[in-house]
């Protein structure tokens, strides 16, 4: 899972809290694992609108009330 001292974005903290890995989020959202890794570790990274949509659809499977603004600065 996550090592000590590694930076995490809001998405990274959310999936770690729910016991999911980057690989699992990648599979569910159908977004490249490297992109998901960047989204989970770099809080300044802003993915494309299509990628955000896919990630949010996967997150809403865990929390139906999740809002895009809670995870991405758009």
UniProtKB/TrEMBL annotation:
<feature type="domain" description="HTH cro/C1-type">
    <location>
        <begin position="17"/>
        <end position="59"/>
    </location>
</feature>
<protein>
    <submittedName>
        <fullName>Transcriptional regulator with XRE-family HTH domain</fullName>
    </submittedName>
</protein>
<dbReference type="InterPro" id="IPR001387">
    <property type="entry name" value="Cro/C1-type_HTH"/>
</dbReference>
<dbReference type="InterPro" id="IPR010982">
    <property type="entry name" value="Lambda_DNA-bd_dom_sf"/>
</dbReference>
<dbReference type="Pfam" id="PF01381">
    <property type="entry name" value="HTH_3"/>
</dbReference>
